[in-house]
Amino acid sequence: MKEISVVILSGGRSSRMGSPKATLKIDGISFAEHLANELSDAGEILFSVRQEEDFPDVPIRHIADVYPGCGPLAGIHSALVHSSNPLVFVVACDMPFVSHTVVEELVGRYREGVDAVIPVAADGRGYSACGLYHKKMIPLLERQLESGNYRLGQLLDQCECIVVREDTFADDEKIFINVNTPEDYREVIR
User: Measured between alpha carbons, how far is 72 from 19 in angstroms, rounded to an integer?
Assistant: First the structure.
């Protein structure tokens, strides 16, 4: 995994949770640090935030959104701009059970000329805030951000994307759980 960068996205407002999701803890470790530990074999790990001074207690190199306030699309853009590797695995901080096996599978599926490799649910919904992206997508992301369209699904409709069904990762049914609410959080820490 040394040939890729990992970027943990945390720029969201956490409005449904009521507090920053990146600092929620599992076994005494914040979601962000848990992901960084799990994905530590990567060539570099970055923490995408709205402002660099956000989350000073998280010991991961912080990168600020170039387009602040524009959602996960802006986080992916910043991830690609700031990373030192051409392939970048991004993961939302509220997906604390994503493991290195996901990264390895997506990297294994990557082919020259592809823009992104994204896991998808059985119903076809893409986990676009948990995927492998190539730096060559920066101009496409910039055009979309500058047009005011911040929808990730639209981005994936415009690029060459390989999808990997979530049942490929059958070893862990929690792997793509997204923790958005206090109820979700209580469920995952049981």
Answer: 18
Rounded to whole angstroms, the Cα distance separating 101 from 106 reads 9
User: Does residue 69 come out as left (phi exceeding 0), alpha (psi in the -120 to 50 range) or beta?
Assistant: left
Q: For residue range 75-123, list pLDDT tens digits in order.
A: 999 999 999 999 999 999 999 999 999 999 999 999 999 999 999 988 8
3-state secondary structure at position 74: helix
> In 29-83, where do the E strands start and end?
29-30, 44-49, 61-64
Helix H or strand E segment including 70? none
Residues 6+ apart with CB under 8 A from 55: 10, 20, 22, 23, 32, 47, 49, 62
Please say whether the dihedral angle defined by the alpha carbons of residues 97, 31, 186 and 75, taken in this order, is positive or negative: negative
What pTM was computed for the model?
A: 0.93
| Tokens 């970027």 belong to residue | 7
